[in-house]
Design brief:
By secondary structure, the chain is mainly alpha-helical. It has a single domain, classed as lambda repressor-like DNA-binding domains (434 Repressor (Amino-terminal Domain), Orthogonal Bundle). It contains 5 helices and no strands. Helix 2 crosses helix 3 and helix 2 crosses helix 4.
């Protein structure tokens, strides 16, 4: 089963918020995770749905577990659904 567009968007927002919280660029995250900068950009904009292996690498580069990253994305998605408005990101560790 593929992720819903809303979850992909929420995941992207969670990744971007955490990356910015840590003060690292997409290029820096790409270097740390051995993922391509363009791929990270596509995840952040909801255009890519990462595999579990890639999600784990991405989360590790953000100093999170995959579970923490998914939970942050789910919270963003739920908050947006409850408010019936576009999602905004707040990632807590």
């Amino acid at each position: 089963m593929s992720a819903s567009p809303a979850f992909q968007t929420a995941l992207g927002l969670a990744v971007k918020a955490r990356r910015q919280q840590l003060g690292i660029t997409q290029e820096g995250l790409a270097n740390d995770t051995e993922l391509h900068q363009r791929w990270i950009s596509n995840v952040e904009t909801g255009k890519r749905n990462p595999s579990y292996a890639s999600l784990r690498r991405l989360a590790a580069g953000l100093d999170l577990t995959a579970s923490q990253l998914i939970a942050a994305a789910e919270q963003i998605e739920q908050d947006a659904a409850q408010a019936n408005k576009p999602a905004v990101a707040v990632v807590r560790r």
